[in-house]
Amino acid sequence: MSDNQIKIRAYPNEDPVLPGVSKWFVTKDSDGRHIIMPAEPECPVCDFAYDAFTGTGNFIPRKDGLGKPLIIKSKPIAPYIPDENLKELVRLVQILQRPVLLKGEPGSGKTQLAKSVAFDWYGPEYQNHFFEWQVKSTSKAVEGLYHFDHVARLRNSQLAKNGNGEDKEDLQQYRSFGPLAKAFLTSTADKPSILLIDEIDKADIDFPNDLLLELDERRFTIPASETGETIEARYPPLIFITSNDERELPEAFLRRCLFMYIKFPSEEQVTRIIQAHIPGLVEKQGSFVAKAIKTFNDLRDKIRNNPSDNKRVSTSELLDWLRAYNYELKDKPDMDLEKDIEVLPLYYQALLKTYASVVQREKELEDKQKKEQEDKLALA
Amino acid sequence: MKNNHLLFWHFFQVIDRTLSYERGIDKYRLFLQTLERGYIPYDEELRAFKQFCRILYLQDIRDEARFNQLLDLAVEKEQNLLKQALIAARPVQKPAAAPRDSQLPGPPAPPEEEDEEAPPPAPDIDDDLMDDLLKEEGAAPPEPKTWYYKTPLLYNGIEAVHDEKRFAATTFLHTDEYFSITRRTMVKGWQFLRNKENSVSTQEIDVPATTFKIAQEGLFLEPVYRPGVRNREDALIILADVRGSMTPFHELTNRLIYTARHEGGHPRAPVYYFQNCPLGYVYRKPNLAEPVKIKEALVKANRNVTIAIVISDAGAARGNTNPTRVAERSQQTKHFLDFLYSNCAHVIWLNPVPKHRWAQTAADSIQNEVLQMASVFEQEVYNFQDTLRTIFKQNM
What residue spans carry the region label Disordered (chain B) (predicted)? Predict the structure, then answer.
């Protein structure tokens, strides 16, 4: 960490009217009010180009037949509302220049954070600065760095031998870069790249260890038998690594990482998140949403204490569930929501994900009804 | 740092010792640099500072409660020095560059407002005052060398009793990590005992083999793929002594078995239980139900690979030194060990009782029979890992 190099970018680029929300997600509705909506940026289509002379990579916009830049409307990006801890984390990651290990319950927004930082900083061009590496159980560390197409090379050498191919071999044509290399190549002090290594715990236990040097020194060398190039980052990219805790990560790897556990957000924060994801629901049905959050929190506690049920529910389940209600409301505007939430809730499939929890919930309701009947009898 | 006092070094050592996080001096250096350059905003309760420590040092959410306790204690100890350092760092940062677009919070609270004892505003702190402060706080206490058999939290709990709130905060452990050997140590130890074997092919091309094939066949038809590797399933067999003198160690035994079968990388390692010494039968369940013949239990063991792990105190817990009893027990155990050796490559005996209690018990007489008898509860925490690492090397 040398002081004069560090540049700290603010996250999020807040909207002046709605603090804490990235400006890209704020639009004006017909009444001129500022509301939070998912963003659908129009992204330029770019091709990655590697400049072997300077050892850098950049993205060149692709043009259509008339010479106009090609633009594609991207998938909607859901608004992300970071809490204070996450804002501080993003600031510290820029200062400390270490990869950060994100853990948290499934659905708590681990993966979303990296993308949201990239989108917040670069807007529609975020795809040129954001690199995603989805780790699979069979992933090897080298896959994130580069791929060398040996089969093509062997085939071409066969053709050359038979006199049908080119004589001179350009080895670089067989080599393509992985997300880690692209993040290294494109990162600059003004525009640091963002790399997401998703679900690192899925791969073999040795996988994180194989990345130690690359993460530490931010460089790697392709063996001389292939192209012999050395890839080096000019400025450290931001590296977010997520893990679902399916297995313990090696000590040497943990030592190099910063750590953050994304907790279930506070009630106030949850309301903001619901506001952002399901526009209009909180405004129209405020008391229902409050009640739904309470029911949801009770359910979370119950699941936590229930040994037979280990599928924890988190923010994304809550959003799914409320989205389902919101959909229903369109058809039946006079639905009595508050009563409904007491019984086995509509769309419980979004919340209760094991047989055990459904059975338990049904039994609870039965008991409750029985008790009510008994009370009635006793009164009569 | 001034006066050779390494700010917060003590805390760094404490977490290394208590939570068994690997010590990395680079993290401490990062810590100091960040502090000195004024990147950590100052607030009265040092909330930002604590959050910074958590992000930098914490490695596992299960340790969070314990970590927070340690952090609070450490902050309390060096509070004044920390505040000084945080305030001192601020003005250096300010004129250095325009605020850029960083979101540094507003100006620090003027230090005069804190309280009368607080040091004067800081850029150059007078050395005498620093000395006083150091003395006053006892900021660099001598390190106690031995610390075993002590519930770690209570060592400074005595004066804390007077303060009700603090007592409540420090006396009750919210974690079950109270053994001198932590879960992570166990996991690391077990991981050394993994053994690889070839499995189905991967998608990786074996270039030399492919080239060789082309040379043989005269043309390129298809590439040769490298075989994959996976963990052997017969690397371990665990035999655990339960009940009787082992009762106090049940939690330890369970944890050893759990870590081996989960994060330790031996998900299918068979586990059998016995009491005192297996005589013909071992049991599948810890309550000594479902008996299995020893022969049957060892049927999957590979004589070249499998390591038998026996978890037992071998009579050392009770300290019964009656020679006839010891002789009888040793005889039985040796018979059992012979049988193990005819089926397994090595036997490791994990003894929960410290070594100095082994004298004149069965543990003493059989420790030469096994490859290694290791005390899991010895004061040197690394004993367990070292043992397993040594065996791993011998196996290679």
Answer: 92-129
Contacts of B214 in chain A (CB under 8 A): 154, 158
Q: Nearest-CA distance from B292 to chain A in Å? A: 29
Q: Six-digit token pair at B204?
A: 């990786």
Q: What is the pLDDT of residues B16-40, one digit of tens each?
A: 777 777 767 888 888 888 888 888 8
Please give the Cα distance from A47 to A316 (Å, whole number). 33
Beta carbons of A255 and B64 less than 8 Å apart: no
Total Cβ atoms within 10 A of residue A39: 19
Chain A contacts to B (CB-CB under 8 A): 1, 3, 7-11, 85, 87-89, 91-92, 95-96, 98, 100, 103, 138, 140, 150-151, 154-155, 157-158, 205, 225, 247-248, 251-252, 254-261
pLDDT for the residue numbered A115: 92
Nearest CB among B187, B211, B223 relative to A151 is that of B223
Please answer whether residues A163 and A132 qualify as being in contact, where contact means their C-beta atoms are separated by less than 8 angstroms: no
Q: Is the peptide bond before B142 cis (omega within 30 degrees of 0)?
A: no
Q: How far is A313 from chain B (nearest CA, A)?
A: 18
- Going by pLDDT thresholds of 50, 70 and 90, the confidence category of residue A280 is confident
What chain B residue is nearest to A257 in terms of C-alpha separation?
A: B56
- Whether residue A248 and residue B184 make contact (CB cut-off 8 A), yes or no, is yes
Q: Please spell the DSSP secondary structure of A229-286, one letter per residue.
A: -EEE-SSPPEEEEEE--SSPPPHHHHHHSEEEEEPPPPHHHHHHHHHHHSTTHHHHSH
Tell me the CATH number for domain B185-192+232-395.
3.40.50
DSSP classification of residue B112: G
Distance in angstroms (rounded) separating the CA atoms of residues A362 and A343: 9
Q: Nearest Cβ partner of A260 from B37, B55, B207?
A: B55
- Kindly determine whether residue B51 and residue A88, on different chains, have CB atoms separated by under 8 Å: yes
* Residue pLDDT tens, chain B, 396 long: 455 678 888 888 888 777 777 767 888 888 888 888 888 888 888 888 888 998 888 888 878 888 888 899 888 888 888 888 888 876 544 444 444 444 444 444 444 433 444 444 444 444 454 454 444 444 444 444 444 444 444 444 444 444 555 555 555 555 566 666 777 778 878 887 887 777 776 777 888 888 888 888 887 778 888 887 777 888 889 999 998 888 888 888 888 898 888 888 888 889 999 988 888 889 988 888 888 888 888 888 888 888 888 888 888 878 777 888 888 888 888 888 888 888 888 888 888 887 777 777 777 777 776 666 666 665 454 566 666 666 655 554
* Residues A240/A100, Cβ–Cβ less than 8 Å: yes
Q: Cβ separation of A259 and B219 shorter than 8 Å? A: no
Is residue A242 within 8 A of residue A107, CB to CB? The reply is no
Write the CB contacts of B391 (distance below 8 Å, at least 6 apart in sequence): B192, B193, B307, B346, B348, B371, B372
Q: Which string of DSSP letters, residue by residue, matches A292-339? A: HHHHHHHHHHHHHH-TT------HHHHHHHHHHHHHHHHH-TT--HHH
Q: Which residues of B touch A259 (CB under 8 A)?
A: 54-55, 57-60
What residue ranges do the domains of chain B occupy?
A: 2-119+126-177, 185-192+232-395, 196-230
Of B51, B101, B103, the CB nearest to A85: B51
Q: Do B202 and A150 touch (CB under 8 A)?
A: no
Q: What is the pLDDT of residue A321?
A: 84
What residue in A sits closest to B185 (Cα-Cα)?
A251
Question: Chain B partners of A256 at a C-beta cutoff of 8 Å?
Answer: 24
* Residue A90 predicted with pLDDT over 90: yes
